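Posted in: Structural Biology > Protein-Ligand Complexes

Title: Requesting predicted complex, S-adenosylmethionine in pocket

I'd be grateful if someone could produce the 3D structure tokens for the following input. Sequence and ligand are given below.
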Amino acid sequence: MSRTDLSPELATEIRSRIFTEKGWMKITQVVRRGGELFRISLRPVTIKEEKRYQGEMTENGRTTVKNFDLAGAQKGLEDILEQVGPRELHLITASGDLHVRVTRKGKALISRSAPMARESEEAPAHDRVKQMPLTAFDSTALLKTIDIADADGRIKASMRGKYDQVNELLKVLDNLIPSPKPSETEEVKPFHIVDCGCGKAYLTLAAYHYLTAVRGLTVRVCGIDRNPALIHTARRLAQNLDVATHVTFIEADLATAEPPFEPDLVMSLHACDTATDEALARAIEWKSRYIVCVPCCQHELHKELKEGGPFQTLLRHGILRERLADLLTDTFRAQLLRILGFRTQVVEFVSAEATARNILIKAEFALKPGQIVAVNEYLALRDFWKVTPWFETRMSGLLSKYMEFPR
Ligand SMILES: C[S@@+](CC[C@H](N)C(=O)[O-])C[C@H]1O[C@@H](n2cnc3c(N)ncnc32)[C@H](O)[C@@H]1O
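-- Reply #1 --
Done. Output follows.
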């Protein structure tokens, strides 16, 4: 019997409700000491159809997660029960929750809730939404650290949209990034990613974790943002997740930022206005093979659209004019990428209900630049609407090999 300051009957009840009864969901112990919080929890999960137990420990704001077999979980529970001194212990099971608060004087105050009305699931979480990249590996610590999940590991309602967007982007990366050919002699070259306009680094950190944990790739990621507060947060999150040497951040404007490596892939998720064009331009200048870009709000072409010839009526209503400007902007971007040698696809990103900014441009440098058909198609559309897209002006140096300037 372990040296717990819980009564032997209570400790036996907890062991039995966890490992003998059906319907155990989680046990959590919280210890507060001198303003610091130590939190440890254990819960059943199913990973690759095997029952496992997930332990999670938060100490000084840093969370670590580890999966155990039955013997490991039993040992983990004994460690929890062996804790002495003031603390709180919360057991969640289908037969009713048990809450124990041990006071400074060592008295255990016990409260119990009634059994749950609904049936519990034996081993939740991992299996439920298998098809999502963020459920293909143990992402609990990541999601909690980046504040997409709450303390119990549930996706916060307010963060559901971001969670879905990151999952969709990860699917695209997964399909696009090839696995390195096995080689016994050569050292594996890391796959280098730059995230332009990374904000709080949800995608930056998720991409690193997914590609290393699920794809087993050696990855380095660099996030760029001009907002100092966001970069400060992003760096702290990377440190808390213990990945700060492989996931780095630069506080700079995209136009001047210099990442520490030549990227294989440049991504940007909702970089505002012409920052999307700047991300595309930098990707080309950095000679990135892949580009994945979800454009954001777009104002610049909107102002320029004045003459529509027989389609003038399309410009009459503000909302239609705005949507037309968005469509034309992304059409021009895609066509300019083709001219510059990128095989380019424009697809739906997430559902239009989730965000109106739901177009995704993905491109791979795989064509001969300057193909005359692509140039002519571009010029016809541009000259019809009598506009000069910002991206064209930005890329005029390179494009001048294939097109004449000024119009
Ligand atoms: C809408 S947020 C998206 C953040 C992140 N990609 C996400 O999806 O959570 C756009 C970000 O782009 C950054 N940004 C906009 N223009 C930029 C520029 N020219 N250079 C660097 N960062 C820029 C902003 O500071 C902001 O953090």
